[in-house]
Amino acid sequence: MDVYEKLEELQEKALHDDKIRNSLLATKEEKDPIVAFCSKCQEFGYEIYPMELINAGEEFYATMRRSTNGGGENSPKLSGEDDMYELFMAAIQEMHK
Known about the structure:
about 100 residues; mainly alpha; globular
């Protein structure tokens, strides 16, 4: 299972389990939120590591850039689009509303 599948599965669990969702959301308040998030993921049985999470975001964004506007170097950088942690957190926060 790759990091995208792990995050998708964990997001689905967070949708149905307030304890998981609140634990993951609380990582935003930590000194190093990505490390705290990965530790929580591991507690919940998902082996996700900081560099793996960062790399997944960069790969996701690179794929998106290649698929739009010809994928050239002049494609504009979209703020936050390469940050899987922030995208995940936004998704589970939105579920909570």
